[in-house]
Write a structure and sequence with these properties.
This protein has 1 helix and 12 strands. By secondary structure, the chain is an all-beta fold. Strands 1-2-3-4-5-6-7-8-9-10-11-12 form a 12-stranded antiparallel barrel. Strand 6 and strand 7 form a beta hairpin. The longest helix has 4 residues.
Amino acid sequence: AAGGGLVPWALIAGLETRDQIGGSAFATHAHTGDFTFKAAGLAVGFGDRFEVSYARQRFDAGVVIAGLELGQDIVAMKLRLAGDAVFAPDHPLPQIALGILAKKTLDFDFVPRAVGARKGEDLEFYLAATKLYFAAVGGRNLLLNATLRAGRGNQFGLLGFGGDRHAGYRLLPEASAALFLGESLLLGAEYRAKPDALGAFVEQRAWDAFVAWNPHKRVTLTAAWLDLGSIAGKRAQRGAYVSLWLGF
């Protein structure tokens, strides 16, 4: 879904206007102290109003069990409900969008079920609000986003959905802030809560701090420092990630 590396924003994928179809594609690689994560996907935006997207995620957890690789497929839709994030700077209403994600944990019957996950497939829902404020901080533009997710994905869904501690949906707050250092350079941070539903493993919040460079309107390269907290009993999973975004 269009947005940050951890948090979906209310923006619609692609560079289209209200009369066009656009889209984007991405690839991300992250490495923490014990794990490696890879993801790739694409999204299509219709008239700057509606978005559909697909992503596949793979997570190398060989440090827990030799040869173990977790993953999930995500198909998502997003509808812009109201407001405008960029082109109405004097209007207080942010751009607001409603999203739904259909997630499927790969190889659910092996580790995810064994550690107490209830389901291998689930739906998540979120409401996002995004606004760009011009000349807000020292004459520089500031982007703010707040997202509220209804979800129960263990480690984002890589370990299934729901657990022995609780099986129902949780309301999970997420937020992003980014400051434009120039026309093509963005400095920001994101926060994402997680449900902590499995008794076998403590699950903690995730956050990142990133720098995004946009040398061309169709290309963005992001480098970030990521903190995912404890994963599968391994504490302090921190490390770097890089992501390439292409838009049309």
